[in-house]
């Protein structure tokens, strides 16, 4: 049995990755996830390879899931949340409660906090008509659709849409909402999905409403030049969306190039929703006595508690894995230091 | 005396930061720098605070310099380069040569590689007339000017320029040059300098030629809205630059909003040059038997050698510090593992 134990809170890609890194170095890991499955948001993402891999990272999650479930140093508790945390003699004591009410106490030497993010709820951006109009979906719903069905269809009639519009920055870079940050990863995931759709459904016309394209990848320019041949890039963010009689969506926006208001009808609207602090951040922050930044994400680390992944702020899957590696590394060093103190 | 030693190659902000992290945990550090001073590129950067700190990171370098020079576990060798590296029994033996020809051997348990980046040389982008026209300077030269003199003047006549243009993406996102990546940090540093100049020399008109603004910081939107009130943002990259009779610069570009070619005369042109792999990357890659990526930057780590900072690719000062923390953390764990092997 491992002589040191770490509690990992959150079973998304960052939590899984930190758990595996620690387990491989001989640490015992208890992985606690409040949902009924591991994998977090990223588990619903679709591979976006066109002619070749575009390094979207979606496959990383499955690899991490497999590795975590296979490792004997990792035990998983689903449907579980932390109710209370105390620290004494350099160790933590966490009270865990299952959804069915069952509760127990877990003793641990350190904690990895990998509670992820909450996707911005576009019902808070009323003019886009999310939930009111069937054919307005989020980028996360599109990920799921591509993953499950490979092709894109309109929710209202299951027909293949002829004209799709992506609307970027929904709930990001928005002073009115107080969400001042850029969510960073949405340009990359939306443009990759757009190119994937063009490959599978080449008749589709795709429009990309955006403010500034956030670059990604070492060969960004090659990718982007190809994307610009396939996708109509419009530097504008729509103001209002109206439903037409045949379930189309009339999008109204100010076109900067043309310097005029333009209305255009699409069959499907994809809202790229922002990355906001996880739902439990406030609770956990009080429970763990952990600081948050002015934007509501967690600070990096604090006396035996090490934060990883999108709980720190918007980041890609690759960045979440790197950040989990760093958190695991810090935890390992912390455990060694603890050990030295005990000896000294 | 510390019982474990790490050789840090490169005394820029990443190397300094890794050295300090390791020294504080009891590791002996030899910091080797080929130039005649520590601090790397970032040492020439100017604080860009306007009403308040804008988190540009320039002050971090001085803090790191002070901390590194004060720590008794860190010894510094300037004007020194690695000539040869061998590994035996889990330890490295590095042959170091000074510029004056003096050479010696250093034994070490692990290596941090923090050799930084090379700024793109804008003489390779001939139409901009760098070196031909006095009043075409780089963003790095502007950093130095702001740091040393606080105000901006034209090199040709030392007068304060009335009209300044920033040209972004010089040597980045450029298929013709084969530099396909975005250098990521130039938008942030150039816009921060632009706002600083507007505060100190409010009569100056500033134009910002760019492709896509790469966002930065948790309160990006607030910063950017203020910047847009002070700086004219033009989504275009100039094609040609010509000198006028009075040392002005006629900039020619295609204005997308107006859909026409526009000529405009500026007093000073600031080229935001790209971040490219360090000059020694190829040599060191062969010497250390270290892989590089297809873009020519170093891979993250390899058997006792841990890479930090912009040697990995374009990154901000804050990211370089975080990356150095990760490299130091990995090195510490590696040293422990080595220790266990020796015991086992």
What does this structure look like?
2 copies of one chain form a homodimer. With 344 residues, chain A is an alpha/beta fold. Chain A has 2 domains: 5-116 and 278-343, FAD/NAD(P)-binding domain (3-Layer(bba) Sandwich); 119-275, FAD/NAD(P)-binding domain. Chain A contains 7 helices and 19 strands. Chain A has helices at 13-24, 58-70, 139-149, 186-200, 220-230, 281-288, 317-343, and strands at residues 5-9, 28-32, 74-77, 80-88, 91-98, 103-108, 110-113, 117-119, 136-138, 163-170, 205-209, 232-234, 240-243, 249-255, 260-266, 268-273, 275-277, 301-302, 305-307. The first copy, chain A, has a 6-stranded mixed sheet with strand order 3-2-1-7-19-18. In chain A, strands 9-16-10-11-12 form a 5-stranded parallel sheet. In chain A, strand 4 and strand 5 (91-98) form a beta hairpin. In chain A, helix 1 (13-24) packs across helix 7. The longest helix of chain A is centred in the C-terminal third of the chain and has 27 residues, at 317-343. The first copy, chain A, is elongated and about 65 Å long. Chain A starts with a strand and ends with a helix. The mean pLDDT of chain A is 94.
Features:
19 strands, 28% helix, 2 domains, 344 residues, FAD/NAD(P)-binding domain, 28% strand, alpha/beta, homodimer
Quick summary:
The structure is a homodimer of 344-residue chains. Chain A is an alpha/beta fold and 344 residues long.
Overall number of strands of chain A:
19
**Largest two-chain interface:** A-B, 37 and 37 residues
Give me the side-by-side strand order of the main sheet of chain A.
Answer: 3-2-1-7-19-18
CATH architecture assignment name of the largest domain in chain A: 3-Layer(bba) Sandwich
CATH superfamily of the largest domain in chain A: FAD/NAD(P)-binding domain
**Assembly state:** homodimer
Order of helices and strands of chain A: EHEHEEEEEEEHEHEHEEEEEEHEEH
Name of the CATH class of the largest domain in chain A: Alpha Beta
What about the largest sheet of chain A?
6 strands, mixed
Structural class of the secondary elements of chain A? Answer: alpha/beta
The total of helices of chain A stands at 7
The chain-level mean pLDDT of chain A equals: 94
Number of domains of chain A: 2
Unreliable sequence segments of chain A: none
Helix content bin of chain A: 25-40%
The share of residues in extended strands of chain A comes to 25-35%
Task: State the shape of chain A.
Answer: elongated
